[in-house]
Amino acid sequence: MTTPQEASTFGSFAGRIFFELGLTSLARSPRDVKLLVVQRFVRFVAYGASTLVLVSFLSALGHSSERAGLFMTLTLVGDVLISLLLALSADRLLGRRAVLVLGAALMVVSGLVFAAAPPSFWVLLAAAVLGVISPSGSEVGPFRAVEESVVAHLTPAADRSDVYSWYTLAGTAGTALGILTCGWAVEGATTALNWSFLDAYRAVYLAYAGLGVIKLVLALALTHAVEADQDSPSTARGSGDAPSDTTPLLGPDAGSQAGSCKTCWWAKLLPPLSPESRGITAALCFLFAVDSFASGLAPWSWVTYYFRSRFNLEEGRLGSLFFTTSIVSAFSVVLASSLAKRLGNVKTMVFTHLPSSIFLALIPVGSSLPLSVFFLMVRACTQSMDAAPRSAFLAAVLLPSERTAVMGAINVVKTTAQSIGPFITGVLAGKGLFWVSFVCAGSLKASYDLGLLAVFKNHKRDRHEERDEQSP
């Protein structure tokens, strides 16, 4: 029989485990934050399924590797425009909830168009852009900027790293489930039901549309608390030298110049950036552009196609392989929160991401399947551990009124840089030089890690809290 002292000790031990894993912070987060985590999971199930078959789907429609690479590049370019428009208008015009609802509705439409499988390259491209078909298995639309801004808005600074960890884990776990389910569903449909591969791929995108419907329902369930605070000019100004949340984008002297266009639609979209935020944003945009360009050289769509074409893996085995790597990556995300409590966000980002960059470059070195799978697996061990600390770091160095717009702008820069990579990889693949894209991607990612450490290693404080302390 357990004594009260033993029960207390066990409870204390369990509480410590829950704290280290970030479950305590997630449990006390608002209902809207939990809904966002579930939305991300559902969305990434759809992304995972689509990513596994995208290149094969285009191939089944008669498109070459070069054309498939061009498709992914143009999709990402189109996503840049959609993301920029929706992210900038989320706080000031449409509202965050409306943006998430609209994005979910477009996912449904896009899935239905792909399920109809029109052979037209341009029809599919338009559907991929508007409906946010992810060529890389990662976030490409406006969802992440809006959702991360909401999490920062509704979550205390001390809990953000934990909540972002579980937010990231939800996406990685969703990708894993989508890849596994899609792989075995396609193999079952083609072997047991004698479907053609094209018909099986159509069914995948029909399921994509169904997942969009679920996401739409979840988005409609969000409350008004997710919306940005609208401070009036009389109360929003800070005191002393601290920049206000409503400081004009072009500085205090720009008021007379911009007075004539206060009602212009584009003026309403511009985020009120403080001088320090401009420098931080510029540095982050450059570093993230390097990392994202590298990611574009080796997106999940091309990595899965590399293993399928080089080692002749069937969809079921391919799905199981990438399900395993995604699960390993998902569980490693939880450890990142515990590391961030001890090392800080920047060091955690760098020291976990750098090994994955090196192993990415080594994937094509192995001439046998086991060796390539080994490098793929060890890369997965730390591949996503930088995501949650990065989100917490961005929330800390940006002022609350800037987060949605700046995060959206950063995502636009990342997507723009990433968009170039898939076409380059498609050309290399067509010339039998697939391995070059892996080596270049790993090298560029390692350069990003070292640059991030050099520039931001001393940024530790939350600027929002810092300004509160300066206020009388």
UniProtKB/TrEMBL annotation:
SUPFAM superfamilies referenced in this protein's UniProt entry, alphabetically: MFS general substrate transporter
Gene3D superfamilies: MFS general substrate transporter like domains (1.20.1250.20)
Main location: membrane
Membrane topology recorded in Swiss-Prot or TrEMBL: Multi-pass membrane protein
Key words of the record: Membrane, Transmembrane, Transmembrane helix
Region (Disordered): 230-249
GO cellular component: fungal-type vacuole membrane
PANTHER family named among the record's database cross-references: TRANSPORTER, PUTATIVE (AFU_ORTHOLOGUE AFUA_3G04000)-RELATED
Name under which the protein is recorded: Major facilitator superfamily domain-containing protein
Organism the protein comes from: Corynascus novoguineensis
